[in-house]
Amino acid sequence: MGILIISPGRDLKRWTDALQAEDPSVPLLFPDQVQNPDKITFALAWDHPSGIFRNYPNLRCISSFGAGVDHLINDADIPPHIRFVRIIDPLLSNDMFEFTLAVVMKYLRKLSLYCRYQGKSTWKKHAYLRMADVCIGVMGTGVIGNHVATGLKKAGFRVCGWGRGPGRKTAYKRYHGRTQLRDFLSSSNILVNLLPLTSKTLGIINSNLLTSLPHGAYLVNLGRGAHVVEEDLIRAIDSGHVSGAHLDVFDPEPLPGHHPFWTHPGIDISPHVASLTDPGSVAPQVMENYYRNMQNKPLMNMVSRELEY
Ligand code: OXD
Q: Active site includes 241?
């Protein structure tokens, strides 16, 4: 009975406050407070210690703290009957849109360069790009990617998207499947990665993909660090084929202090902050899934363990 919460290193006060406000009668338990592991049927988890779920023989459902579930999919110790659910939240999608817009505008107007100039008291002007000069390619057109692509289109950009299957009708041109990937890439002056990390997308941003982009293209990685083959990205930027990258996600995180990305002049870094799950906004859906799991009802925002997202 109750929700088992596992997220080492995270300050969980806002989460426990939000869940308690939603339903004060539901006990919230951390692993060291669980007296009877047999009673745990529902967990909320992020970056859990591998193998920890073996301690809860009656666990039936694990909710991710966020949109991504690669941390759950990649734990081979979690038995196949345990269902995974993820967070789908309009605030999470819109925060991702706002962050993407900020990064794209920073790139067009060369703001990173001026920040570097400020450090050296340098007064030097450069030509800039306009919205009309670029087409943004959004790779991954699920709930978040579709919201980002639609928002960028509404803001006045030319936008195209790429996803696994044909999918629904969209406000932007959407490519799908491996056969249309090259056409999508050749249209993308700015490539925004919002794919889930799966066995099929691991290392997808490699030299093959990067050379298919138009000369001078810019990469924005908001998916997962492991989507990128790091040496291939550095080589593509050093050769001038890719003009630079904004990276928000890394493998591992935090990005180690000695990593070449930190000092590369073509790379801007943010610490996995593009879109942070808001506990108050998502507590109702976590609680709803807790009730549904207790009553053996169909869950909200179920993950396909076969598709891995
Ligand atoms: C998520 C994330 O998956 O924060 O929600 O990366």
A: no
| pTM over the 0.85 mark | yes
Record: fold of 90-269: Rossmann fold (3.40.50)
End-to-end CA distance of the chain: 27
Is the bond leading into 284 cis (omega within 30 degrees of zero)? no
Q: Rounded to whole angstroms, what are the CA distances from 152 to 69, 106, 146, 162, 275?
A: 26, 14, 10, 15, 16
Q: What are phi and psi of 225, to 5 degrees?
A: -60, -35
The closest of 276, 277, 299 to 288, measured between CA atoms, is 299
How is residue 266 annotated by DSSP? T
Locate the domains of the chain by residue range.
3-89+277-294, 90-269
With a Cβ cut-off of 6 Å, ligand 1 is lined by 66-68, 277
Class of domain 3-89+277-294: alpha beta
For residue range 3-56, list pLDDT tens digits in order: 999 999 999 999 999 999 999 999 999 999 999 999 999 999 999 999 999 999
Whether 272 is a known active-site residue: answer: yes
